[in-house]
Amino acid sequence: MAKAATMTRDEQGLVGRLKQFPVRTKSFLSDVRNEMRKVTFPNRKEVQATTLVVIITVILFGVYFFLIDYVLQGAMSWVFRHAK
How far apart are alpha carbons 11 and 35 in whole angstroms? Predict the structure, then answer.
């Protein structure tokens, strides 16, 4: 805040932001580089394990929704047959 109080009106506006652009860009890229150093990528075994979990989950949900659809279809057919 003390810096902002000593800046002239032009330095606080567009001109000031343009002057700070290279410094802010360098700081941003430095932060990105530091964060990317912390990133760990999964190995082949981890990828295979999570892929297997996804495949099994999709199959289970597919079977579940098939059964729910089958039961609801039968119930609705029964209701329509007996509602006449």
Answer: 31
State both tokens at 81. 């047959």
Number of folded domains that form the chain: 2
- What is the reported pLDDT for 3? 55
Say yes or no: 33 and 49 in one domain.
Answer: no
**Which domain covers residue 73, as residue numbers?**
42-84
Considering Cα of 20, then 29, then 38, then 47, what sign does the dihedral take? positive
Check whether residue 25 and residue 46 sit in a common domain.
no
Model pTM? 0.55
Q: Report which residue type is found at 49.
A: A
Span 5-32, pLDDT tens digits: 555 555 578 888 888 999 999 999 999 9
